[in-house]
Design goal:
Strand 2 and strand 3 form a beta hairpin. Strands 1-3-2 form a 3-stranded antiparallel sheet. It is elongated, with a radius of gyration of 17 Å. The protein has a single domain, classed as Arc Repressor Mutant, subunit A, CATH 1.10.10. Helix 1 crosses helix 5 and helix 3 packs across helix 4. The protein has about 100 residues and is α+β, with helices and mostly antiparallel strands. It starts with 8 loop residues before the first helix and ends with a helix. The protein contains 5 helices and 3 strands, in the order ααβααββα.
Length: about 100
């Protein structure tokens, strides 16, 4: 019998993390925020007007991504500046690529 993709505990944890990542970026508003951040760091005051969303809702989406590690924050005086955490995106990009590679055979 062929080895199951759920027989290895390290793979189970990786797939669980990958599922969390996909749920987070699967939200339309979060994808739009990430699209804005790909051009460089921005404060929430630069993000929410481009999304037609209230600032508190934008901040809520930023917190979810920050808690997962998808974005970084830098505080300057009273403003927080958000940017993409490229290291984390690269990690999940590789995990997703390896996951799909199993189905190309």
């Amino acid at each position: 019998m062929k080895k199951s993709c759920f027989s290895d505990k390290s793979k189970i944890n990786k797939y669980s993390d990958l599922a969390k990542f996909m749920r987070i970026i699967g939200d339309d508003n979060r994808l739009r925020i990430l699209c804005l951040l790909k051009d460089g760091e921005k404060c929430v005051c630069e993000i929410y007007p481009n999304l037609d969303m209230a600032q508190n809702l934008t901040s809520s989406h930023l917190k979810i991504m920050l808690d997962f590690g998808l974005i970084n924050v830098r505080q300057e005086w009273k403003k927080n500046y958000y940017s993409i955490n490229k290291k984390v995106f690269k990690k999940y990009s590789l995990l997703l690529k390896n996951f799909f590679k199993n189905y190309e055979k």
